Amino acid sequence: MSLDELSALIARHARPDQRTPIDGVLVSKVERPHPPSPSMSGTVLALIVQGAKRIALGERVYEYRAGQYLVASVDLPITGHFTEASPERPALGFGLTLHPASIAELLLQAAPGDLPPPGGGTPSGMAVSSAPDELLDAAVRLLRLLDRPRDLTVLAPLVKREILWRVVAGEQGAVVRQLGLADSSLSHIARAVRWIRDHYTQSFRVDDVAQLAGMSASAFYRNFQAVTAMSPIQFQKQIRLQQARLLLATHPNDVTGVGQRVGYDSPSQFSREYRRQFGTPPSQDAARLRGSTSDTAPAALV
């Protein structure tokens, strides 16, 4: 019954921008499948309440559907789309932004033995699991507050905290817990990810970014691939090409200029890598995108 009530609540409250009056909580309603589109994942819990979605991260593909959730513990370049959606049965989603400080606070307050022991190795930056009943029930109670504005300010933070605890203590908790640990390998990789994202137009040496992350070059490379499913250079290329596609939607007649703005010195290399990523050369893709930005809108996880 939780999914049924969640569906009704989301259908009633969903807006085009996905925002709600509850800070960090998103709900979405999509009435038709769209072509796969690139975006950044953010750090988020994304629960599918109706329909199904497919996310590609490098060579990894994550599929989740009604009753399943995806967690992203690092802001990663993804390509995603809903695979099941129609006006009669739209895809419906619930999302909660994950903040490291909130996770760290939960970890500090948990009693010894409340959480499973840490596993070995660095977890992927994304994972999918089936949502337990307790998590679905908490999501229902949180969205019910949208109909009770008087209660929202006091109760919403408490229910959000419960949802976060269900995830931290759940099957994919290891992925989320590292987000709250200041010295975890994932936090070091997240620091490097932010640097590359902020300086994507610049060339860099992997050894220098490893030093910035506080890791040896070999450990950095190994952990970066474990978290992002890409090498640092492939990650930078994904960011460049995603940004180029967004720019081409508004500057379709300046393919060479767009390539230079995102860091490509060679127009031929830009065209070759763009075509490999999106299936068509940038000039043809720009012509198709002209007059419509629907394919380049951010593809939020929920």
Descriptive account of the structure:
- Keywords: DNA-binding, Transcription, Transcription regulation.
- The protein has 302 residues and is an alpha+beta fold.
- The chain has three domains: 2-180, Jelly Rolls; 185-230; 234-296, Arc Repressor Mutant, subunit A, CATH 1.10.10.
- The chain has helices spanning 2-13, 100-109, 133-144, 149-168, 173-177, 185-198, 206-213, 217-228, 232-250, 255-261, 267-278, 282-289; strands at 25-30, 37-40, 44-50, 52-57, 60-65, 68-72, 77-84, 91-97, 126-130.
- The chain has a five-stranded antiparallel sheet.
- α7 crosses α8.
- The chain is globular, with a radius of gyration of 20 Å.
Which characteristics define this entry?
Jelly Rolls; globular; 4-stranded antiparallel sheet; single chain; 18% strand; Arc Repressor Mutant, subunit A
